[in-house]
Amino acid sequence: MKPIKIIYICSIVSLFTIASCKKDSLLNQAPPTSLSDAAYWHTPTDLQNYMNNLYSVDGIFPHYRGFGSLGIYSVDDNSDNMVPQGVNGQLNGLNTAAGNGGYADWNNIRNVNYFLANYQKVSALASDVAPYIGEAYFFRAMLYFQAVQSRGDMPWINKPLYPSDQALLYSARLPRNVVMDSIVNDLNKAISYLPTKSNAQTQRLYKEYAEGFEARVCLYEGTWEKYHAKDAFGVSGQNGANFLQLAATAANTVMTSGIFQLDNVHVPNGYFNLFNQVSYSSSKEIMFWGAYNQADGIINTWQNYYQFGSTGTNSDGLSKTLVDDYLCTDGKPISLSPLYKGDDSLAHILKNRDPRLRQSVFFYGDTVVSNAPGANPIITFIYPALVSGTPCTTGFQIRKGLNTDYFQSSGNGPGGTDGVIYMRYAEILLTYAEARAELGLITQSDVDMTINLLRDRVGMPHLNMGSIPADPKWIFPELSPIINEVRRERRIELACEGYRFNDIFRWAAAPDLIVGKQPLGAMATQFLTVIPSLVIGKNIYVNAQGYIQPYTKTTSMANGYQFNIGRDYLLPISLQEITINPKIKQNPGW
Predict the structure, then answer these.
(1) Annotated domain spans of the chain
(2) Which CATH class is domain 64-100+261-495+513-590?
(3) Fewest CB atoms within 10 Å of the CB: 40, 486, 561, 580?
(4) Residue 249: partners with Cβ closer than 8 Å, 6 or more residues away
């Protein structure tokens, strides 16, 4: 990404391009050809085509084509939920301030600002223009939110800059809460312009999704300000309460809209079946999603069925700490429940546990009905791929997101379509519960219409605020029982979907979850009899208690993650940025 000065001084305004696209496949558009400025800004179709490019393959929404064969279900590799083959650099304190990378997507921010400066040239009914104005405000909010998450304080640029705009070109960073206020203001404008879901075009932004996104944004900033209040990353004089209230209000607006509900309630394997669909057009839970396919340059990122066997290529394993966090079927944690049978085998670990665990991890005897030409029609999981070319790191081999269709794989002919989930209603329920808990306002009624709905889907006992079992292994013993349980439910429901990194950072939870920690897996001895080539100390390594320790031979992990709590919650501003604009000050610790 180019530095601000280079982008704003050297770039020539080039319009986004016309894309004639089907309504049901907007998020898999390839970039079309450019038009000149003089030929544009005449009709609402011009506005639509301009905004189409922000939905496109190279637009703003992630499509996870660079995340390997698991796609979105490996994004939690940057957290304590999953263990990748290589150590995450940010968690291990390995980032540097060298380089010339920018700290925001200034190109797309400028493209949105250019739209907002020119859309008035179109002469049309306000109702025909409004949806695209709403999209522009939403995208600008989204772009700035991503920048604040990674690097904190930001300049707020709300116009397309030119060489004459010296004051803005060399402006200082504004405090993050000021920028977040502007982000919320943009989202409120987006909400006022966007159509409701029932009136929106398929796979285009709509009002209720923007409200849900506002809830996500405000929960992030509210908890960031609350839990970083006493460190270098906090906001002077702010405790996050205003943003937490906004989060609760926005989430409640979505909940009371009557549009959304959880899918697959009381349906066998219903949780698992949320995550392997090629289309979510009929879903009541998936609030926004993208349809990507190989023909549009996206390599299919499904976890393919052939990866689940003993010679699979699935290197990402769930962590022991994630697996330990699932409750038993009596609603008690493993530290208290008589139903827990111990850690010595997968059979014992998975027995009598929250069904979401069993539907997220492979177990002996799991089968896949294969439609591969000439292949055995039934494939059976025998043991984790601990000795394959890219072995499972922990023995807890991920099942969540599995696609069983041979022809969906990008390596088998034309490939199929990935349905990439960007927001589901479950997140909204969890956001409301957390915001209310952080404000100290949560009631049993709040719990019943959020967490207990999620538990109902899989047949788990309800959470009763008056009788929460005191878990001696709560991850956050300094916090209240209800906040611990709300955080546990969020971790379990959203596991491996890419939320955990941001949760750890906004809670300032690295001391509890990251610093000095060694990621662990299952007990290794259980696999020795079924995998003769597995030899402890040769091709698998364990800690003193016998749990798989994937990073034993990684020198930088000799003492666990070396995350610096005075520095690593934010990425650095590149040295080139600071040299170009001396008003841009470096982030704490860098």
Answers:
(1) 64-100+261-495+513-590
(2) mainly alpha
(3) 580
(4) none
